[in-house]
Amino acid sequence: MMLISRPLFKQSMKANLGNFIFVSLITCIMLAIVILVMGNLQIDTIQKSMSDIFIEDGIKSACKEKSISYYNLAYDTLDEFDEKCNSLDNLFNVTLIDSRDEIIENYNTCINNGKSHDEAIDEISNENTKTINEVLISYYLVNGNDFSKNKIEEYTCNLIIDNIKQQLHGLIPLSEKDYVISVISSGVDNYINLRKQQPSITIKSYASDYISGFISDNLISQKISYNNYNIVISDYFTVDELNDVCKKAILVYNAELDDYIINHPDCSKEELDKEKNKLISENSSSLFLSFDEELANSLSELGNLDFFTLVLGSIFYKMAGLLLPFIFIIMCSNNLISNQIDNGSLAFVLSTPVKRNKVAFTQLVYLFVSILTMYLLMTLVSVVCFKLIDSSKLSIDIYDLFLFNLGGFVTSLSIGGICFLTSCIFNRSKLCLGIGGGISIFFLVCTILGLFGSDVMPAIIRISSMNYFNYFTLVSFFDISKIIASDYSFYIGFCILSGIYLITSTIGIIVFCKKDLPL
What we know:
Elements: H1 6-40, H2 44-95, H3 100-112, H4 117-124, H5 130-143, H6 149-168, H7 174-197, H8 203-219, E1 223-226, E2 229-232, H9 239-263, H10 269-283, H11 293-303, H12 307-343, H13 345-350, H14 356-388, H15 398-425, H16 429-451, H17 480-484, H18 490-514
Antiparallel strand pairs: 1-2
Helix pairs in contact: 1-12, 1-14, 2-6, 2-7, 2-8, 2-9, 3-4, 3-5, 6-7, 8-9, 9-10, 12-14, 12-15, 12-16, 14-15, 14-18, 15-16, 15-18
């Protein structure tokens, strides 16, 4: 206590009390507004709305891709079904109407005589009739002598489904293959029944309606994984909305495919299949996935952005919340030494038995106490306001809030040390304010500009080159992102800031004690 002059401390406190109260009051009010407004606005809903954009877009993309792919498969299957069904009906009930019983009887005779299936086919056939006889006998072995329309349709349907199973074998997982088979087999059965009631129905219109309904009915109850959460599709779309998405996707696909066929009448099957795959990819692409990888990651990062922490930590505590304290420190440091030398009032103080080192140390202690008091008030206000909001969904807690205030305190101390040093060096107020204040504001401006290049900003609005400004400001040692991530290396930055304060203030006292004063 011998190094502190109580009268001088009281005089400094009285001289700077108005500025201290004003700055502390305004800063605390701003802090309270930030916490209460941002907290009560349920800022997490902003993040959720951003995520919802990508979730809804992803669901639509999945619906479009499945609906067009299954529509393609259903259309080709039904077209093949109609063609095969008509072909078999014509073969059995027109071409072979007079000879089919005889062919079957001859086949059975060969089998009864101990011949194998292939030997029997060879014996009852010649080079021109072998294929026809094989088709007839294959049908006979399944349905007997029933060559009715219904049986031919049933046989054709099973034949096509077996063919699809073989095509899909090894290409997709078993569970998905069973799902595809169920879609197609149910579709063909429904088509057969519906065609009896509506003979004029077209394959294209039926396939579009059936696939749209099937996809929407099955997807509506499914869940998808997003950011470790299970998302229920029904929370975002109704069945009718999904059905509408599927129908529109198929409609656009058909229009573009018809246009291609008109413009390329001589295209080969391979070329047509290639165009189909291209159209499926284009019409089912997600808005999110259609961006390049860098932009897609940027949008995803924006959707996951913690707005509350960004505003409170990086914007308030590292920028807006430092502005007024910095101004107070600049003015207070100037008033403590340099201004008193400039106006001659320090001559009266030094004419008393009070030594220079005691004067300098007393002024430094006042500066420290005023900054400490200011941040104690800010800590109290921040904790009280934090308790008044629903903090359960926030990524920060009371401990993080204490660290924010501690970081702001040591940052302000380092600036206080620099300003105190300039106040001790210069005998003119304007030089002290110009250099000490200029350095302080320069650091703050660099912090503001550097924010747009730092990792806390979403990549979609981040300007990487702006990050260079962070290398020219002491405020960079106050690392909010490390505090949030519980990376305790942020204490190193706090120690550096504290060290800057100790070094600059010590040098300031030494310079003040040794320099010549114009008294």
